[in-house]
Design goal:
The chain is built from 9 helices and 14 strands. By secondary structure, the chain is α+β, with helices and mostly antiparallel strands.
């Protein structure tokens, strides 16, 4: 073997040994720690779980809807005509945002509430909200805080509450214990997941059964009473267009939901057969209701009655009993 060949073999062996040593050494060391992502203030941290009443409304989706759009716009016009606020108003924020979330807690300690406006138009400024006389309604508490907090200037006619403005065009109004939670959460975000809601619904509301259906009035009702046994929650969703309403009853187990399904079918059949007369609505459209059962949940889907399909797209302010 020539000296040149010998040197090449030597260098190749050294290179291989170096690569082997490097790979072994890398295997012994733990991988570098991923950079910790800093949590930012997010609206769902105002809730410490799913509130007993949890509602979601999507104004822009409703305005675009061929069935409900006209009615929604008529409601907004009536509300605008009756409000005493001037300049930027909460109504303007509600009508212009992408989503409204409402959460109300009901427990032994009392009630607290929060309302969230998501996707508020960037042109709106809460500091410019004024009353009929042009006086500012809100004042900024601390301009140095990471999250702006406003409170009502006139505390005589308003509950103790604050409005927080988050960086992503989200306004959070909080009252009672919700305000204390919001202050803590927005200063030191928890990163909670948002409570679940129907992503396809124009609007939905979820009611906790123990908080809303445990009274004797419901328990003793021949129609509602049997449905409250082992009921966890009731959710009503308004779907786009002709789809109508979807009601979901969540139960503690499948046996309870199976029994409830039979009761719902029987009740709907009886209601649909009631003869209409003056002062009593015609419920024959309930014949088209579809009752389903999946796991521990019962669903009832009811399409929009034909008469409403004709009238709602042409709704005006004069049609509203306000």
């Amino acid at each position: 073997m020539t000296s040149t060949t010998t040197r090449r073999v030597f260098f190749a062996a050294c290179a291989a040994a170096g690569l082997l040593a490097a790979s072994c050494d890398a295997g012994d060391r733990p991988p570098p720690a991923a950079a910790r992502r800093e949590l930012t203030a997010q609206w769902q941290d105002v809730f410490d779980g799913t509130p007993e009443l949890y509602a979601v409304v999507r104004p822009q989706a409703i305005k675009r809807d061929q069935v409900y759009g006209a009615l929604f716009k008529a409601l907004v016009r009536v509300a605008q005509a009756r409000t005493e606020m001037r300049g930027v108003t909460s109504l303007e924020a509600m009508e212009g945002c992408e989503e409204i979330v409402i959460g109300i807690r009901k427990d032994a300690q009392g009630e607290d509430a929060a309302i969230v406006f998501r996707g508020v138009p960037a042109s709106l400024d809460p500091s410019k909200m004024t009353d009929a006389s042009g006086r500012q309604i809100l004042r900024l508490i601390d301009g140095r805080a990471k999250t702006q907090e406003f409170e009502w200037r006139d505390r005589r006619n308003t509950e103790a509450g604050s409005m927080f403005v988050l960086p992503d065009r989200t306004w959070v109004g909080a009252m009672g214990e919700a305000r204390a939670r919001a202050r803590q959460a927005f200063a030191s975000p928890f990163g909670r997941p948002a409570p679940k809601s129907d992503p396809e619904a124009l609007a939905s509301v979820r009611l906790d059964a123990a908080s809303f259906f445990s009274s004797a009035r419901f328990q003793k009702s021949a129609i509602v009473g049997p449905l409250t046994r082992k009921l966890r929650a009731l959710t009503i969703s308004l779907r786009p267009g002709k789809t109508g309403l979807v009601t979901t009853l969540e139960y503690q187990d499948e046996d309870a939901s199976a029994w409830a399904e039979m009761h719902v079918k029987r009740v709907i059949e009886e209601l649909a057969q009631i003869e209409p007369r003056p002062g009593r609505p015609n419920l024959s459209w309930l014949k088209g209701a579809v009752v389903g059962h999946e796991g521990s949940a019962v669903t009832v889907k009811v399409a929009v009655p034909p008469r409403l399909l004709e009238e709602l797209p042409n709704a005006t302010g004069g049609d509203l009993p306000l």
